[in-house]
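Researcher: Please translate sequence to structure tokens.
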Amino acid sequence: MQSEDIELAVLETSELTTFPCSIDQNLRRTNADKTKTPPSLLNRKKRKHRIKQGPCKTLIPKQGLITTNIAKYWHQRYSLFSRYDDGIQMDEEGWFSATPEEIAATHAARAGSGTIVIDCFSGVGGNAIQFALKIRGCHVVAIDIDPWKIGYAINNAKIYGVEDNIDFIVGDFFQLAPFLKADVVFLSPPWGGPSYNKIQNFTLDLLKPRDGYSIFQVAQKITPNIIMFLPRNVDINQVEELSWLSSPPLNFEIEESHVQGYTKGITAYFGYIVSGSPGLYKLSEVATS
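Model: Translation complete:
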């Protein structure tokens, strides 16, 4: 199959539907909303090229109050996005899946200048924004299968002033991967919601939409330089096993990140972006105000 046979549904920022939204409220979708096509994609032909950059407007589904499911995360909003009050937008899933901003910044610091980074499960854009913001000459490809999330990510990137450095693609990473090239791949696949905290030993087969081994192998065909953000209770032995999926095995480093005294996740670095000795395990305290 040739690359021109792939049709990508790509959002044009100049054509997004705009609705009023209070920054003191948040956005909620019902299950029915999730199955509907956003207004900006109705009756649109799919395009085969990258996003056309333009003035960014806001794609917003049904507006609602903070739900009980995300009240905990509401109190952490400034650690997720320091510029939250400037109009940051998230759906309910975005609240518990967005990487805390300071951790996302540490991920970006490892990628190196002048790089192309693919954020394979970009969600509402937290990591993509930090890659574009912190790395000189970096260009980011932000992919998500949910067009609503890409709409939020566009809005959020505009707030940070980095929308011109990010290509936003609505699509399935696994279908797109054979046609992608990059210096670094960032993986933060869905952890299965807040219930992951109740699991004593989080195994890689619990990741979505495929198990961690499958996701890693697909990413590895793009580049050996992989950053993978995982739950704090992930099985470390399984993470180490990922390095052995290559021949010769990849260098790897595992970092434990803390925000305001709480462990927020494990970051695994693979390939040439590993600092220090291969196979290193270290703790990293990420302090936020």
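Researcher: Any highlights?
Model: The chain has a mean pLDDT of 78.
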